[in-house]
Write a structure and sequence with these properties.
Layout (H helix, E strand, L loop, with lengths): L6 H10 L7 H13 L5 H18 L4 H21 L14 H7 L6
Helix pairs in contact: 2-3
């Protein structure tokens, strides 16, 4: 670890991520984000990942049971949409009436 964190190495990491010190795992997440969204800048990808980490630390870590429930709801919604073949679950006929439609309108926005 001491060999890896030399001033030269730190300088290269900061140069790659616009002056921010980013760990290896976060660096990989930023690279994947850039691959998915080529129009995004490195700074934008770093900021988006930092916001995601902040949101995770302020919600999931504080209440993991609620996070699990939200994840299960999202999985059920995606499964329902996949089976029905529709792009949205706001129609009353999609997956068991209007219950999914109302839940979709209250969903937490994701990045």
């Amino acid at each position: 670890m001491a060999e890896e964190c030399t001033p030269t190495y730190i300088g290269r990491v900061r140069e790659r991520f616009q002056g921010k010190w980013v760990c290896g795992l976060c660096g990989e997440a930023v690279k994947e984000r850039l691959a998915r969204e080529p129009a995004l800048t490195v700074g934008g990808a770093v900021d988006a990942h930092a916001a995601l980490c902040e949101r995770f630390n302020s919600t999931v870590r504080l209440n993991p049971k609620l996070s699990l429930a939200n994840s299960m709801r999202d999985i059920a919604r995606k499964s329902c949409l996949h089976r029905s073949g529709s792009a949205t679950a706001t129609t009353p006929s999609a997956c068991g009436g209007d219950k999914i439609g109302r839940a979709a309108s209250c969903a937490v926005p994701y990045v």
